[in-house]
Write a structure and sequence with these properties.
Elements (H helix, E strand, L loop, with lengths): L2 E5 L8 H14 L4 E5 L5 H4 L12 H5 L5 H4 L1 E3 L4 E4 L8 H4 L9 H7 L7 E5 L6 H9 L2 E6 L5 H18 L5 E10 L4 H14 L3 E7 L2 H5 L7 H4 L4 H17 L3
Bound molecules: adenosine-5'-triphosphate (ATP) and magnesium ion (MG).
Length: about 260
């Protein structure tokens, strides 16, 4: 049975999508069966997995509105080695269209139940908001992976996310936990980043993943080739860090 993880942080541009696609590729590399779910109307994780969001006949939008099953809507990314449930701009309308639907926050959870046995990991790339879409992700997940940059305001933004996760845990999904905080775009030469990193560890202890993802230009270049860095340039420092992170995740789910 797959373990389901949201990659979430309501702050924009912190590395959610980069983490989702590279973790997916890293997990595939170490032999795990992975479904990557794009829950962001920007469709970056879809494109970054080599799937053209404009060409998709069915997306997560159809799944959330129950006009298609995941089995019908998912596609295989051969190059990346994992399955993709894609998204495009259409998904932005789902929020409004689902307003009158009962149990709307459980739509994704219900849909995933049908394919959960076919995977080891299901990773959900969340949009930069605490919206109905993110709520669907949090309701479906066992855990949340929070990528963050070690910057001054990073801790402040974390409070909102932690409170939301606590609320979802209390009211909608008792399975939900923060699996860990992932330090991304890390530059050890910057003293402030070291300090924030130390603060994070002091505050959150073993909830901070051991793996640190460095700032690495190859990770930023890869999406323009429709590939995660792990596939685009496996030798790059950033790619190696994500494969290491995949291994850490495999170990960590044994303790869940
Ligand atoms: P959004 O909130 O818009 O969904 P996001 O949190 O998904 O953004 P990404 O799109 O993954 O963030 O990353 C933001 C930018 O930072 C992208 O241009 C990406 O290529 C770059 N980036 C992410 N991680 C790294 C890294 N480790 N090194 C260098 N660049 C990175
Ligand atoms: Mg993103």
């Amino acid at each position: 049975m797959a373990k389901i993880f949201c990659v979430a942080n309501q702050k924009g541009g912190v590395g959610k999508t980069t983490t989702t696609v590279n973790l997916a590729a890293g997990l595939a590399k170490v032999g795990q069966r992975v479904l990557m779910v794009d829950l962001d109307p920007q469709g970056n994780a879809t494109m970054g997995s080599g799937v053209d969001k404009r060409q998709l006949a069915l997306t997560i939008y159809d799944v959330l509105l129950e006009s298609a099953s995941i089995n019908e809507a998912r596609v295989r990314s051969e190059k990346c080695g994992y399955d993709v449930l894609g998204a495009n701009r259409e998904l932005a309308g789902a929020e409004v269209e689902m307003v009158d639907i009962e149990r709307r926050e459980k739509r994704l959870k219900t849909a995933l139940a049908e394919v959960q046995a076919q995977y080891d990991f299901i990773l959900i790339d969340c949009p930069p908001s605490l919206s109905m879409l993110t709520l669907n992700g949090l309701c479906a997940a066992h855990g949340v992976v929070v990528p963050m940059q070690c910057e001054y305001f990073a801790l402040e933004g974390l409070t909102d996310l932690v409170n939301t996760i606590k609320q979802v845990h209390a009211n909608l999904n008792p399975d939900l936990a923060i699996i860990g905080l992932l330090r991304v775009m890390f530059d050890p030469r910057i003293t402030l980043q070291q300090q924030v990193s130390d603060q994070l560890k002091a505050h959150f202890g073993n909830k901070v993943f051991d793996t640190v993802i460095p700032r690495n230009v190859r990770l930023a270049e890869a999406p323009s080739y429709g590939l995660p860095g792990v596939v685009f340039d496996p030798a790059a420092k950033g790619s190696q860090a994500y494969v290491e992170f995949a291994r850490e995740m495999v170990e960590r789910i044994k303790t869940l």
